[in-house]
Here is the input.
Amino acid sequence: MRSGQPCGPVLLWLRRVFVIPLAATILGASAKSQQETLPTFRVEVDLVNILCTVRDSHGRFVTDLTKDDFIVTEDGIPQQIRYFSRETDLPLTIGLLVDVSKSQENLIEVERHAAYRFLDRVLREKDLAFLLSFGVEAELLQDLTGSRRRLEAALAQLRLNAAVGGILPGPVPNPRPKGTVLYDAIYLASDEILRKEVGRKVIVVITDGVDVGSVVSLDKALQAAHHADSVIYGVYYADPRYRLFGSGYGILKRLAEETGGRVFRVGKVRDLDRIFDQIQQEVRSQYALAYTPTRPLGDGGYRRLRVTTRRPGLTVQARKGYYAIKRD
Here is the structure.
């Protein structure tokens, strides 16, 4: 993917092959922990994957639940959980998306150092990460790697990416106003990179949430994240001087909550380092569930999910739905 390259057609449906990898990873982890014989895994088996975290009434992570403690419903219909893992060392793929538009100009240096400390702490031997910056265009600064050295070098490349005097860079004038292509960045990270990966997939996006000029819509970006089985964590970081352009906090909140993530606001109480520590703890405290829907996947429509526990007083954080497979 190169800077300024068109996104291409938006994929509207979740292909069967992409709901399988996480469950396959769960199988490997479950085989070690439960020592049970598991069936051969085939592509034509329809599975829905769910990553979730559970907290008690004091906000502390609960990590001792079993498969039988969870209740999953799809459009109100109970589902049977087929695969389950509470391992905290399942492979993790992180996409770090950093807003380098004009409204973030004075925040980039802080973002650079905090992001490196986060990646340095969270990445383990089998984990991968990539770095994508976005302003008037999205740019992949570092493709998937487990190398901290490469990620540090990529973070050093973070630079302001804004239109000069209202004119966009490039030989051909572009009538579409641009400023921050947030939705394009999420779509590209999900569809071009994360959809092909296995295991747990997380997008951490640092931005003020304001989008100006993306080719794809918010709904398309969110749909791509669902297709990739990725969880979005939003870090709302806004320069007070640009409040005139509106608050994108609500946008980040929707992206996060719909995919099973959270949104954090940088302020006096929480700085970037503390927020990244919280995200790190959360992704290391996830449960992975997978089930075969009782209603066949064939309509391509959106299905609502609800995950709860039989143990009272607990709160489950999980994605709210997914797009079914569209069959020809």
